[in-house]
Structure prediction request, 148 residues.
Amino acid sequence: MFNKMLVAIDGSEMSAKALDAAVHLAKEQQAELSILHVGREAVVATSSLTGIVYVPEHFIDEIRQEVKKEGLHILENAKAKAAESGVQADIIYAQGEPAYEILNTAKEKGVSLIVVGSRGISGLKEMMLGSVSHKVSQLSTCPVLIVR
Ligand SMILES: Nc1ncnc2c1ncn2[C@@H]1O[C@H](COP(=O)(O)OP(=O)(O)OP(=O)(O)O)[C@@H](O)[C@H]1O
Ligand SMILES: [Mg+2]
Prediction:
């Protein structure tokens, strides 16, 4: 039923659980598995004095490169973990708004299942779902598996 799957990971414990579930399912369903990580947009600080801080372009590029390096590291680890279970997954790195990138990648790849964790890095305990898993489950046109 699920021949193409996409799992989104942010490096959190809950997304590691989502990865485990996705790998397990992909193996069982003999499905293709893609692992996606969305790098954070560069954070720009504001000055309390003027309200404006000018950040040189090269500095923003440097931050982007650092964020990308960290993201690729997360993805390579996940790929190795999948391979340990006999699943050859492909990895995708994107930058932007996570929910949008997850939905867009799912659409582009024509996946039949998206797997996410119920919460992620920020992990507020009192909240049922994180904003990314909430948005993805609300807006996705294909089934979404939320792992907790
Ligand atoms: N940057 C990301 N790249 C890929 N997947 C992500 C990313 N952020 C979140 N996810 C996916 O969404 C799941 C839920 O994370 P989410 O960000 O919604 O929760 P949170 O971090 O606890 O709360 P919030 O970000 O709303 O403050 C994660 O387990 C992961 O599967
Ligand atoms: Mg989050």
About this structure: The longest strand covers residues 32-39. The chain has a mean pLDDT of 93.
